[in-house]
Write a structure and sequence with these properties.
The complex is a heterodimer. Chain A is mainly α. Chain A has 11 helices and no strands. Chain A has a domain of 168 residues: MetI-like (MetI-like fold, Orthogonal Bundle), CATH 1.10.3720. Helix content of chain A is 77%, strand content 0%. Chain B is mostly helical. Chain B contains 13 helices and 2 strands. Chain B has 2 domains: 68 residues; 252 residues, MetI-like (MetI-like fold, Orthogonal Bundle). The chains are: A mainly alpha, B mainly alpha. At the A-B interface, α1, α3, α4, α5 and α6 of A face α1, α2, α3, α4 and α5 of B.
Amino acid sequence: MSRLAARRKLTNLVAAALSSLAALIALAVLGSILWTLFERGFPALRWSVLTTSMAPTGENGGLANAIVGSLIQVGIGMVIATPIGVLGGTYLSEYARGSRLGQVTRFVSDILLSAPSILIGLFVYTLLVATTKTYSGIAGAVALAVIAIPIIIRTTEDMLSLVPTALREAAAALGAPKWKVTTLIAWRAAGAGMLTGLLLSLARLAGETAPLLFTSLGNLNWSTSLGKPMASLPIAIYQFAASPYEDLVQLAWAGALIVTVGVLAINIIAQLTIGRRR
Amino acid sequence: MSEAIPIAAMAGAAAVRPRRPSLSGGSGSAAARADRRFAGLVSSTGILVLALLSAIIIMLAVGAWPALRVFGPGFFINPVWDSVNEVFGAGIMVYGTLVSAFLALLIAVPLATGVAYVLTELLPDALRRPIGVIIQMLAAIPSIIYGMWGFFVLAPWLAEHFILDVADFFVDVPVLNKIFDYGSGNSVFTAGLVLGVMILPLISAMFVEILASTPVVLKESVYGLGATRFEVIRHVAVPYGKRAMIGAIMLGLGRALGETMAVTFVIGNATRLSPSIFAQGSTIASTIANEFNEAGFGTLKLASLLGLGLTLLIISFIVLAASRALVINKAGH
């Protein structure tokens, strides 16, 4: 074997070894994160975490108000974002091909998609909190909606672009007006994919913390009023993890476990929806 | 005006696929009216998205205006953040943001390249899809979890096993002993590390997808010439996917620059400038998260924090524009 061949073989071997090492390091670090989460979160999970509200240290509080607050804000955020996002994605895929406004909209939607989420929080603060002089659950929901809109636009456009044009042409040839082609043919054909996009943005919203910091603020007490500060799971985790009290830190880990399991469960459902379609 | 836009959009659509036949009636029929109404509804969401971004820019600029008027354009680079004397500048935070994001890329990109190589070339086919799915799952874990891990696991570990040793090692080397000066577990370095770990699954997932999309024929023809696996990746798959890989790195950079929760836990939130990466520091996002609720309505501090937000928005714009320019430039060849 010539020296050149030997050197090339060696390079190949070294590259394989180095990247295997990189993959092992990556696996170990990410494994460490999941392990820490279960090791600290699981023992702290008690039934009372789900049934009692947050309380000062030593009073055996739970996270019930934070969980309900998260559900309310994420729910309202999705209700606001879904129609706007789905129609926006439909516009980009079905109506805006090649038009100037379409190109600009797609570019702007991409900017919104990559905008840091804390800036969305600042925006909604100046829009809804500074003007009403009060932090509120509805402000949190609006901030989450602004984050979800570009995600839903992107996934909707992607999924609609997978629908064969021939399908739309067949419907159009039967005399169906464009709005019927869009709603009855394109939406129906892309339905599972669009649903997956909605699920993924739901999962994203459930873990968002930064945009809620100065919109819904967090609340130690039970409150379902949209006009008042509202608790949420990520904010509760943030407040408790930084506290010096061991029982509150444990509660933060329990909350972190609940959020992560929830987010991963939604993701798995979304993956299964895609998988079944393929 | 509200009529003109949907029609223009329809004209654009007609260029791609045939307009529907007029069998179902003229422009005055109920069906045609419904069609126009739906087109208008759909196009209005496009305008809404434009309005949303404009509103974000305007609100931040208007909110930051009092601070910019007092401190002038120097606000963006002045490394002073003094809440007592009410003198504010973004310099320290811009520095912390850029350094931590750069460290994150330094860690995540080589690791992600290794992961992508192993996943696309070395592993048996049966394992690729499940592991690919696991990576995508990891990318979905909320950033606050990475922050907690950094705060409770990584920072204490670094303080005990890493920082002292490295600082000891460089103590007699000029310049480097300033960069690797003694510090604490909560530092710009730790923040960069946590950010790197956080964007690792994101970049890996994109790299895997990009490398796997190289046409098999292209790879096989080079294998046919006797190339090794590494040579095929290095000289075929990577050049083929270069554009997309730069885009993926830029996406990770954007995520690292604007991340709040993963950083706030571990960076120490100090508002002094230090050349050492082991010193406590702050990023734009961490400072906003930390100090916002201390600033009352209408104060100069609040305006300065909104000014920080504006700075972050400008930095994100620059990164996005740079990635587009790079990608388009590469595509031209």
